[in-house]
Amino acid sequence: MAEEKIKVLHVASSLGLGGTEKVMQSFVTNLDKGKFYTAVFSPTNGARAKLLRDSGIETFIGLDILPLLEKFRPDVVHLHRAGWAEPGYLRPFKLARIPVIVETNVFGHHDPSPDGKIIDRHLFVSHFCAERFEKINSIPALPPKYSVLYNPVDTDFFATHCPAERNFPPHTFGRISRADPGKWSTLALGILPNLHKMVEKKELAPFNYNIIGGIPEAENFVKENNFNKYVNFLAPILTDKELSDFFNSISFLAHANDTGESFGLVIAEAMAAGLPVITHPCKELRDNAQLELVDHGETGLIANNAQEYAEAVKFLLTHPDKAREMGENGRNKASKLFRAQDVATKLGNIYIELLESKGFQK
């Protein structure tokens, strides 16, 4: 049966909790099963491997990639990587003579190596990444070699599990990330002294700030400044059900990451759940796709410093009707642009287009 379909092998560096791996999982589970037989390869195991197998996706973990390619014989290999040159990484795919190779270029980097030429389509995850790529490399990010494909989000799931008519918990907001210092900004904690002063002045009711992905530095800061009465550090989560439960426990998402976002998966998911998002710009040529997702005053708020961020938090906490309106605007935007089934259909069409351009027939 699989031999009658287009065989696609997705390749990721790990099967952990990161956004890259989650995007890969969403693609392989939402591609048209009538047209494609999808499988996943990773040199490193992780929590996402079981989720893939539970959804019927074949996984290959820790094997030598070239013998696997020769045995599995994929028609399409889809790589999920940063985009820059990695010596030796592409050689097995070149030796195996894969008909079509597609890359989700997670951070919008350029691979000028000779092996990099074997990639038939580079997919940027945001228009920001494509435009920065053009600016830095003086290479037009246009088809057939380049195009933008947003990351998929299960907006249907969040619409069901985070319905518009639900009651938002008062005086509560949150943030979520991996427990990685690189995912943090000083703004994430720098707002607390300002918010504390607002509470003391009776400008703001005492609040709850729920955090998934706390790091030791954050926990120490909260403890040393006696902000425990405001901040709750929560355990990591894995599934969209757990994520929807978290989104239902807060009234908006406070995003802060000094390295920025090449897409901003958690932002898109929060939007799909009907939550407004507060975020901030990043300096120079750092990732700034968070500003592509969040429209100031429409789907959330953009803050430039800790005082502006604290004022944005205060506004959303004290204007729940406006916060709900922004959240529903975000939900509509997410459904239009990021719906997993629609994005996966676009990806499948790209596979077919590239195969047909090479005269491939199944």
TrEMBL record:
Gene3D superfamilies: Glycogen Phosphorylase B. GO terms for molecular function: glycosyltransferase activity. Signal peptide: none annotated. Residues 199-332 form the Glycosyl transferase family domain. Pfam families: Glycos_transf_1. CDD domains: GT4_PimA-like (cd03801). Keywords: Transferase. This is Glycosyltransferase involved in cell wall bisynthesis. It comes from Maridesulfovibrio ferrireducens. The lineage of its organism: Bacteria, Pseudomonadati, Thermodesulfobacteriota, Desulfovibrionia, Desulfovibrionales.
